[in-house]
Every structure is written in structure tokens, then in C-alpha cells.
Amino acid sequence: xxxxxxxxxxxxxxxxxxxxxxxxxxxxxxxxxxxxxxxxxxxxxxxxxxxxxxxxxxxxxxxxxxxxxxxxxxxxxxxxxxxxxxxxxxxxxxxxxxxxxxxxxxxxxxxxxxxxxxxxxxxxxxxxxxxxxxxxxxxxxxxxxxxxxxxxxxxxxxxxxxxxxxxxxxxxxxxxxxxxxxxxxxxxxxxxxxxxxxxxxxxxxxxxxxxxxxxxxxxxxxxxxxxxxxxxxxxxxxxxxxxxxxxxxxxxxxxxxxxxxxxxxxxxxxxxxxxxxxxxxxxxxxxxxxxxxxxxxxxxxxxxxxxxxxxxxxxxxxxxxxxxxxxxxxxxxxxxxxxxxxxxxxxxxxxxxxxxxxxxxxxxxxxxxxxxxxxxxxxxxxxxxxxxxxxxxxxxxxxxxxxxxxxxxxxxxxxxxxxxxxxxxxxxxxxxxxxxxxxxxxxxxxxxxxxxxxxxxxxxxxxxxxxxxxxxxxxxxxxxxxxxxxxxxxxxxxxxxxxxxxxxxxxxxxxxxxxxxxxxxxxxxxxxxxxxxxxxxxxxxxxxxxxxxxxxxxxxxxxxxxxxxxxxxxxxxxxxxxxxxxxxxxxxxxxxxxxxxxxxxxxxxxxxxxxxxxxxxxxxxxxxxxxxxxxxxxxxxxxxxxxxxxxxxxxxxxx
Length: 655
What we know:
Helix content is 30%, strand content 18%. By secondary structure, it is of the alpha+beta class.
């Protein structure tokens, strides 16, 4: 092969290897998602009873009714007196609430679990409560409770002149009546001789912030207003559990139970419980922009959310659960991060089974009851369904799709599969899937219709579309380089962009934790085939910094070595003449400059030893030979030409 041909071959090989190397980095999102589902299946294996309670619940959340996980979860419960709770040994509010969500995802009956949760609710005695009576002028009021009447004069300065029995005393600021902790569950009937209004106020023990209840009662003179504290929490023993109350409220919310009585307690302690990231679940319950601003604010780290001690994957699942019905730049970035091929471990899971199941449930949510369940064959599916491309679909569906338009008129695209819409589907009945907090009177909700996300409900009216960022007078920030200053973001835009009420500012560079920044992964524990670094920190103090030990054939080191070798060969071919000159100069000692003078001493014949007389050498004439014919010049060989060219170049360099 000629040198030119060799150069062309090596260059082509270099390009092919580079393209192959780059292509290896491009990860198919669908493949990564399938790996996550498969990771849970592998951990479940053939027997879900080997999993912990937490693993069973989150496996059901991620896969639906797969193998025997539903029955295994039911076996782990305490089931008696039409109530059901988890774990069997010592029932907890949070565990029961998440188990309820898992059973609802698997299509199981949840009545007993709901009954147990409702039985754990109590008046939120952790709050300090006040009764406020206001009138535009001084008035005399009668307050009745425990079948006794108590008169109270409300002065012109709006302060009560006295308390009212053992349950009502004058508050610290003098403007309200403080309700005794032992009287929180009583009912108070108020009547005044002037027009008046009444309402309940509340605060936490350690916070100066006073919250006003949503119910303000206005009455004319001699009218009656009834006030009763209906605001509750969920207890463990006799004490409210905040995290348990959050999850119990979400579980009941998904079932369509009124959760308004729990909002005051959850909202009041949200500031004190920041470490639990409560704004995510509160946004689901209330739809408040105040909570949304926290979710999309500093808690978002560019690719993921990180607030709690549970780790970034759990927190990202929390945030994505609250944003299920929205498509924002944050949700898009988070999903791309999760499926970039670098965040999952070798088995395909994100950190562990809990985080993986939670992320699948939150980021790629199933629709209620009629949604597809992951399967290996038809036996994994319910009656009337079949297993198509790993999903249980209604008989008649099964074609691959990208959007609804790719399917038949009575089908919809769910998880890249055309699924036949059941007759009781919300959209088939010309209704709308909206967040539960948005389906308010005069709109009518249809809890019996399916096809909506777990945090949505089928409603007679659609949510009114919001105005775009520009229509609301905002500035659209570049998602890659800009952000909105704290407190200046406009939420609820129809274009789901980062919309700012003022000029956008340059985005600060956000670095990952030290462990992940060094190419390691944070896990609950390191495996026997992994290296643990104790000098690198994780998001949670209980996590370990791990990295798999290198395996033969498992890295790209050999590719880099081959690439470097090819590059060196190509360079050597391109600059071969200069390399020849350099080698020649090195071997011959050739240097630029004037020719050095001769240093060899003159030749003299050797002298005879002392005392000896030199004898003349005898002369013998040599016979004359005929002169040989001088050969005619011939063409120079290629080697001679190359040598002469080299000498010529050396002479030119020495000038």
C-alpha cells in the first residue's frame, strides 16, 4: 500500500472511531426508561415477599399490579374492624398513606385504609386559636357554649372588655379572645346587638405570624354566627405528625375526600418543616402560586431538586409529582437529566428501588385505573387486557404511537402505545381532566369517570387557559443562561416559560455535590465491587460515596489508546521529511555555523631507535598495468537521489 493510501486509510479509521465513540454517548431515552422498569422487575423477581414494606409500596407505584406485590403488601397490613394500616407491627400514618396510593395505583380496594386514616385525624391542638368578633361600633355580644351564656362587650377600639368563661380569655394583644387548649373541639354561638362579623385565627407556638381562616361569617344585629374549629391534623398516638399529615392528605385527596380541614395545620408549619419540602404536596392540595414559587425557585438545582435528607432523586420525584399536569422548562430539564444515561446505576435504577418507583410514578404517571400496567406476558395483565410491548392494554389497542393523532378515534396514545378508551373515560364523555383544586362550583366533578392522573379529577369545565408571559407584561428568561430574581417570577403562564416581572439576570453556575462532581455516586451503601470515598460528601449524611471498580472491557480506555496511536502515526507520515532531517542531524552531529578547522596533527614517519642507522628501502619497480576503462556514468538510484536531496536541504539549513 502506498503512503498516500495508508494515510487515507488511517484517517478514515480515525473518523469512524470518533463517530462511533460520540454515538455511544447518545442514549435513547426510551431505552433508559425501560431499564428503570426492568430494574424494579429484577429486584421483585418472582417473589415480592422478599422486599421490605417500603420497597413493596414503591414497586407498586412504579409498575402497578406486578407479580404478587399487591397481595404481599396486603399481607403486611393490620386488617381489622373495617380498617387497614401499615406496617402490621406498629401502624404509621405515612406508611399507610403511601400504601393506599400504591393500592389505588394497582386498582385494589382502598376503603379500609381510608377509614383508618380518617380515624387518625384530630383537631390541630398544636396551634394556638383565637376568636375574633368585630363591629363598626361598640356592641354587646353573647357567646354560648356548653349550654352556658357569657356576655362580652366589644369596645369602640374593637377590643373585648372581658373574657367569656373558662374557655375564652383576652388574647396577648387585647383584640381577640384566646381559646383554651382544652376547649378546641367545642362549638361557639355568637350573637350581638349590632351588625358584626366573626372568624377564627390561628398561629403556631413559636411563630408570630397570625393566619386567618377562610370562613368569615357576617351577621346583622341579633343574628347568630356559629364558630367551630374543624381544622385538623393526623396523629400518631396523641401528637400530630406533620410528614404523616402531608401524605395522608395527598392520599385522601387522590380518593376525592375533602382535605380543606387539614390545610391550615399544614400551611402553618410549612416554614418550620422546610426540610421536608412540603410546598410540593401543598401545591397539589391548594394550587397556590405561593407554593409553586418555592418549588420552581431555589430548590431547583438546574437539573434536579434537592431539599430533604432523602436525596435528590426522591426530592425530584416530589417536585415532579406536584407538576404532573404541567410541562415547564424545569420538568423538561429534570427528565432529560434522569434519562441521560449517567444518573442510573448499572442495574438501571436511580439510586434504589424506592427512588426509582417514585420517579416512574411521578415523572411518567399512569392514568387512573384504566392506565397501562407493565408486564412480561398476558398473565401479568387483568382480564380483558393483553401485554403489548411491555404494557397491559385494552383488547383492540396496541399500535405504537407518538401522539393521539396516530391512533384510532376511540383510542389514545399512552406510553407510546395506542390504548382503547373505555366507555367510562373522562374525555370520551366530553369532560376534562383538571387538578382537583380547580374543579370548583359551579363546575361538577365526576369521580366515577377514569382516564385522569391520580392528582386530577374529571370535571365538567376545563381550566381557563392562562395568558402568555408577554401578555402578562413579563420578560422571558433564557433557560440556559438566565433566571428570574427571587420573588419576581410570574407563574401560571400559558407558554410554561420562566417569566420574570423584571429584567432577567445571569444564572449562577450550580455545581453538584462533591461526590457526584468527582464522578462517584451517592448510595445507601457501597457494593463489594465498588470503591468507597469517605473524603467526599453526599447530599445526605447517611449516604456513601461509591464508584464501581473498573472492569476489563468495561471502559473506553482502549479506544483512547488506539486513537492516540493513530494520531501519532498520521503525524509521523505527514511530517516524515522533517523527522528524517531531525534524525540525520542527531546522528551526524550536524550543526549550523562555519565549518570547523582541521585538528588532526601532521603526519611524520616514525624515527628509528637511538644508535640505529636507517637503511634505505630497496626500490622495486612495479609492473605497469593497463589502465582500466572508466565506467560511463549511469542514472542515479532513487536512494542516491533521496540522499542528495537530504544533503541539499542540510546545506540550505546551514546558510
